[in-house]
């Protein structure tokens, strides 16, 4: 327990779950939530109990970020946060579990990929972590191996319809993976952009001398995502399996998910804060330097701002189930700069692991989602979809003591100086939000203490390497 008290009593707070908001005191002992009681009835039982005063604060289940890329090789470089810096930044933002993506090398085994990602995380993670598996190849041996992965707690497999010759899988391979997933209780996660025509658009843009970051967005149109989403859902329907669309960014892709759900199909989707708070114009950079737009090169690209309302409505109406980050940071210096002469060489991805809860809670203040929906989309729903519930994503008795004491009135500007992600810029440098963690507990251990203020005034007490690998259960919704 890192010299910490054996038990923690969080008093005077307002507990917020995906369904309820109520005043209660919460006791964590042995790393788990052991008691939730009316405030008056919950005096410490004696012994070694640390008492936290949560007056004026919400008490939330720790955030679960179901889509991160730490220490990930991409485009000739590696994402700039590793499992130490990335999970620490996540904790500062109130996230207590991440699900990162192991990547099968083309021709390699899933076991090799899993071993590689365990080695990246082992001894480094500050919070708990689980893995999805990206499959880049689907020979019979890999299809058989999917069952081994499920036994290892890797129960979701991401497939790509984009990035030909690198990550893309053809429809027959996708379909085989889906059939196999159905047999073993796994979930297919889809990067749903139809990638072959995108590559032609990219070639043509570059041939015309269109090299600036904005062409990243202009060569990956909404139609490519809409048709990818429709195809992913149709293949899953044929295979009679659920499908989860990752990083959905656009109205027409969302409409494909809505149509499927209206027909009763088990189609699920996540979006990310960048698609809710930023728009395509960010890729134009500044008046003096268009390359500043490289900060915002991610895939799918940021869309024109009229998409925002559709995505917010999708979150409110349960057509979108999850907000994850797709955290995949690259520094401007040495990394994004690789694409100075060609937008196609800008490493794809943005930082976000630390700011997700801040941004989504700010949306509660602005009336875009309810407080309970905020908890659901950032914690409970990803826990349920990826087989971590109720150990994670809940405040139930017996759940892990992953608890955030959240001060809804604490202001924080999301500037580079105030954040901890290992990247040399901020995605929302001028945005001031209301709401920040005051305390973050992971399995009952106090990992973040922000009593003296948010941002760089907060202190991380979580030891490097204390984070544990968590096995996901099979798909069970
Ligand atoms: O730009 C992105 N999204 N980078 C990470 C890879 C992916 O497709 O999720
Ligand atoms: Zn993707
Ligand atoms: Zn991703």
Can you offer a commentary on this structure?
The protein has two domains: 119 residues, Roll (Urease, subunit C, domain 1), CATH 2.30.40.10; 324 residues, Metal-dependent hydrolases (TIM Barrel), CATH 3.20.20. It has twelve helices and 19 strands. The strands form three sheets. Strands 1, 2, 3, 4, 5, 16, 17, 18 and 19 form a nine-stranded mixed sheet that branches. It has an eight-stranded parallel sheet with strand order 6-9-10-11-12-13-14-15. A two-stranded antiparallel ribbon has the order 7-8. Helix 4 links the parallel strand 11 and strand 12. The structure holds N-(aminocarbonyl)-beta-alanine and zinc ion (2 copies). One zinc ion binds next to loops.
Topology:
Elements: E1 7-16, E2 21-29, E3 32-37, E4 49-53, E5 58-61, E6 63-68, E7 73-74, E8 77-78, H1 83-92, E9 95-103, H2 110-121, E10 128-134, H3 140-151, E11 156-160, H4 171-184, E12 187-191, H5 195-207, H6 214-218, H7 222-239, E13 243-245, H8 251-262, E14 267-271, H9 273-277, H10 306-316, E15 322-323, H11 356-365, H12 371-385, E16 403-413, E17 432-442, E18 445-449, E19 459-460
Parallel strand pairs: 1-4, 1-5, 6-9, 9-10, 10-11, 11-12, 12-13, 13-14, 14-15
Antiparallel strand pairs: 1-2, 2-3, 5-16, 7-8, 16-17, 17-18, 18-19
Helix pairs in contact: 3-4, 4-7, 7-8
This protein binds N-(aminocarbonyl)-beta-alanine (URP) and zinc ion (ZN) (2 copies).
The site of one zinc ion (ZN) has 3 residues, from loops.
